[in-house]
């Protein structure tokens, strides 16, 4: 019993001090010893506007949709390819609105020049369920991306057809 008394008394003393201590004893409770913050807490501040740069938008929006479109088409999952075709086109529209100019260059015009001539062929290939045409049109879209990167002085950002899926949790084969 004695071996438990000292730890029990120490715990009781600490709890007493933490809860409030003695009035006018000079011992302040733990909550009173913390410094007061000045101004609003960071968690209470208004969020900063979301303003990602062009490269971040390309990585977040275009790259995954471009890859998923290929993977769906490769597996001849035409409904899924249709979905990602629309998502990819919409992603470029979002980026063109978010970043209308990059280093003085008109982003919407560059996207249009690089891709608009190829969209209809890719759309037709998907609707017709033509794997060979799909692969050719997808290759032209991919080359259009690389042409745009070269125009924007970023030829080192070279896009290619995905070799494997980065999404093990998505089934690209058609489900029947």
Quick overview:
The chain is mainly α and 176 residues long. The protein has 6 helices and 2 strands.
Word description of this protein:
- The chain is mostly helical and 176 residues long.
- It has a domain at 54-151: Oxygen-evolving enhancer protein 3 (PsbQ), four-helix up-down bundle (Four Helix Bundle (Hemerythrin (Met), subunit A), Up-down Bundle), CATH 1.20.120.290.
- It has six helices and two strands; from the N terminus they run H-H-H-H-E-E-H-H.
- A two-stranded antiparallel ribbon has the order 1-2.
- A hairpin with a 2-residue loop joins strand 1 (101-102) and strand 2.
- Helix 3 (54-74) runs antiparallel to helix 4 (78-98) and helix 5 (107-128) runs antiparallel to helix 6.
Ordered list of secondary-structure elements with their pairings:
Layout: H1 2-19, H2 30-33, H3 54-74, H4 78-98, E1 101-102, E2 105-106, H5 107-128, H6 131-151
Antiparallel strand pairs: 1-2
Please describe the structure with a list of short key phrases separated by commas or semicolons.
single chain, 176 residues, mainly alpha, Four Helix Bundle (Hemerythrin (Met), subunit A), two-stranded antiparallel sheet, 2 strands, 2% strand
């Amino acid at each position: 019993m004695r071996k438990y008394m000292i730890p029990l008394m120490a715990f009781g003393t600490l709890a007493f001090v933490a809860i409030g201590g003695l009035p006018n004893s000079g011992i302040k409770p733990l909550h009173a010893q913390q410094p007061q913050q000045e101004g609003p807490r960071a968690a209470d501040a208004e969020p900063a506007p979301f303003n990602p740069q062009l490269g971040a938008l390309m990585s977040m929006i275009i790259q995954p949709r471009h890859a998923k479109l290929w993977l769906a088409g490769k597996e001849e999952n035409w409904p899924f390819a249709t979905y990602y075709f629309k998502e990819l086109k919409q992603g470029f529209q979002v980026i063109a609105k978010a970043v209308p100019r990059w280093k003085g260059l008109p982003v919407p015009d560059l996207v249009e020049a690089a891709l608009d001539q190829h969209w209809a062929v890719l759309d037709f290939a998907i609707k017709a369920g033509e794997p060979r045409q799909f692969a050719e049109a997808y290759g032209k879209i991919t080359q259009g991306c690389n042409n745009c990167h070269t125009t924007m002085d970023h030829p080192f950002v070279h896009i290619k057809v995905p070799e494997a899926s980065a999404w093990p949790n998505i089934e690209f084969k058609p489900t029947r």
